[in-house]
Design goal:
With about 350 residues, this protein is α/β, with parallel strands linked by helices. The protein folds into 2 domains: about 60 residues, DNA polymerase, domain 1 (Orthogonal Bundle); about 260 residues, Aldolase class I (TIM Barrel), CATH 3.20.20. The chain has 10 helices and 14 strands. The strands form 3 sheets. It has a 10-stranded mixed β-sheet, covered by helices on one side. A two-stranded parallel ribbon has the order 1-2. The chain has a two-stranded antiparallel ribbon with strand order 7-8. A hairpin with a 4-residue loop joins strand 5 and strand 6. Helix 1 crosses helix 2, helix 4 runs parallel beside helix 5 and helix 9 runs parallel beside helix 10. The longest helix has 16 residues. The two termini are about 25 Å apart. The structure holds iron/sulfur cluster (SF4). Iron/sulfur cluster binds next to loops.
């Protein structure tokens, strides 16, 4: 590889600046951007309306680092999981969840994860490295490209795959801005959700820099329980998290999504449900109750559906929007907390 910059890791303005510097007209940026982010090509030679000489010049400065698909699995419920190989041979997983009116792509932001939440299979894969901007943008481009032929669309993106997005903040911000660019992938801020374990000092930045939806992995409303389930709580506890959420710059009409995985005998009692209602008081909230998806070697046990429904009745009965998340992709280990790469 002689080239230097991965093309899909650039913002449109950066590409424009480089081409300006070369003395090229602004429409060149438009042409290239349309090939990469709308027609989803994966090689400079596929940009057929550019002259041979110009393509050669591009090849001397840019290249494509699109991950390779190592494995594709389709679940009984039509959820699709891809194992992607990055340039250096490391792998991440990416998941597509089709629904009637939309298609959600779950994107990874790190290889492995440093936070080691014990109920999460990803947490057993030690952090190897952060993903680069292009490696996150390319997940959306690749999924769109792959799904196009099947008439499936990627309308929503959730940063909920492998890793903690706020520990790869600068790259995530840039990738999300590229994904939102209205002249390219054009996925708006309302259709993008960033999911975090609660890196408190960074939370306000997400609202200010991106304005996307925020989901927080809560999983416990007592520090002793959350310390165990989300070890990051020992650094940023429930009080600090609540304080950050009370002052979070929420855009009009939006709510914070709270993820709560139900584990038998650990965080699923009626008292826990009432504690959850108390904890969320004052924060515009939506609660996702997640049936635990067991993985080989885990000692956690899923709560029964009966228990989950009682929990939901208490939380929902308080007026909070409360949804029991579908176990999508469980048969191919594509469900929440099952990604290991
Ligand atoms: S739940 Fe999220 S933050 Fe915790 S180990 Fe899994 S991927 Fe990492």
């Amino acid at each position: 590889m002689n080239s230097t910059l991965c093309l899909t890791g650039l913002m449109r303005g950066e590409l424009l600046d480089i081409l300006n510097h070369w003395g090229e007209k602004p429409f060149r940026t438009k042409q290239i951007w349309s090939w990469t982010h709308c027609k989803l090509v994966g090689a400079i030679d596929d940009m057929t309306d550019l002259s041979k000489d110009f393509r050669q010049r591009l090849k001397e400065s840019f290249y494509f680092c699109r991950p390779k698909i190592k494995l594709r699995q389709v679940s009984q419920d039509k959820t699709i999981k891809w194992l992607l190989e990055l340039e250096d041979g490391l792998c991440v997983e990416m998941v597509y969840i089709p629904e009637d009116d939309r298609g959600t792509l779950c994107v990874s932001c790190q290889v492995g994860c440093s936070l080691s939440c014990p109920f999460c299979h990803t947490g057993t894969h030690r952090l190897e490295r952060n993903l680069r901007v292009a490696e996150m943008v390319d997940q959306v481009i690749l999924a769109r490209f792959e799904l196009m032929a099947e008439g499936l669309r990627v309308t929503n993106v959730v940063l909920m795959g492998m890793g903690e997005p706020l520990y790869n903040y600068d790259a995530v911000v840039k990738a999300v801005r590229i994904i939102m660019d209205p002249n390219g992938l054009a996925i708006g801020s309302r259709k993008i959700t960033l999911s975090t374990a609660g890196v408190v000092p960074r939370l306000a930045d997400v609202g200010r820099d991106l304005g996307v939806n925020l989901a927080i992995s809560l999983h416990g409303v007592h520090n002793e329980v959350r310390d165990r389930l989300v070890p990051l709580n020992r650094k940023h506890d429930l009080t600090a998290l609540k304080q950050a959420m009370l002052t979070y710059p929420l855009k009009g009409g939006r709510r914070i999504t709270w993820e709560y995985v139900l584990l038998e005998g650990i965080n699923d009692s009626d008292e826990d449900a009432r504690g959850l209602v108390r904890y969320l008081k004052g924060v515009p909230s939506k609660v996702n109750l997640i049936p635990f998806n067991p993985w080989p070697g885990t000692t956690f046990v899923p709560s029964s559906m009966e228990r989950i429904k009682s929990f939901q009745e208490i939380v929902g009965g308080s007026g909070l929007v409360t949804v029991i998340r579908d176990r999508r992709g469980g048969d191919i280990a594509a469900a929440c907390g099952q990604l290991v790469g």
